[in-house]
Amino acid sequence: MEPINTQSIQGRGCCFIAVGSRWGCGAGSRSRYQSMMSRFLNVLRSWLVMVSIIAMGNTLQSFRDHSFLSEKLYTGTPTLVNGLQARTFGIWTLLSSVIRCSCAIDIRNKTLYHITLLTFLIALAHFLSEVFVYGTAAPTIGVLAPLMVASFSILGMLIGLQYLDVDAVSRNKKKN
């Protein structure tokens, strides 16, 4: 089979995807791809809602009792955790939660999608720096859980970003 020029494929308004052991082009393979894309984005939306709800719970916990942070997250130097730091952490978590929930509601809003992805990148950088740079957190389950959530979320959102790019191209073609 000859190499495929993706520009000519997009120009003809079809989508190439692997179907079994052959490549397909046309309405059937495009609809299967769009169906797969839609399912993935729905799973991603559900994930974002779940992460958002958990973050709201962490926000409440940060405002209720700051010892939660020193016992679960910042176990390396728990004496540095005080009420002000816990409330600041709670506000950041609340803001992240609202952004992530908003993205789940309007997942095709690319600006909101990028901001949501950025919240996970910032969270990952924060927890990694607390463990490896500042030493205020030890690699316990309390830190590993948010690191895994941020990592899986970043991976899922990067995959979803490709679907959004394809979706934007197909929406522009429908307008023309």
UniProtKB/TrEMBL annotation:
What the entry lists under Pfam families is as follows:
Erg28 (PF03694)
In the record, biological process GO terms are: sterol biosynthetic process
Q: What is the lineage of its organism?
A: Eukaryota, Metazoa, Chordata, Craniata, Vertebrata
Its GO CC terms are: endoplasmic reticulum membrane
A molecular function annotated in GO for this UniProt entry is: protein-macromolecule adaptor activity
Major localisation? endoplasmic reticulum
Give the organism, scientific name.
Chrysemys picta bellii
Q: Which UniProt keywords apply?
A: Endoplasmic reticulum, Lipid biosynthesis, Lipid metabolism, Membrane, Steroid biosynthesis, Steroid metabolism, Sterol biosynthesis, Sterol metabolism, Transmembrane, Transmembrane helix
Q: Which residues cross the membrane?
A: 40-60, 80-99, 111-129, 141-164
Q: How is this protein situated with respect to the membrane?
A: Multi-pass membrane protein
Q: What is this protein called?
A: Ergosterol biosynthesis 28 homolog
Tell me the InterPro entries matching this sequence.
Answer: Erg28
Family membership:
Belongs to the ERG28 family.
Cellular location(s): Endoplasmic reticulum membrane
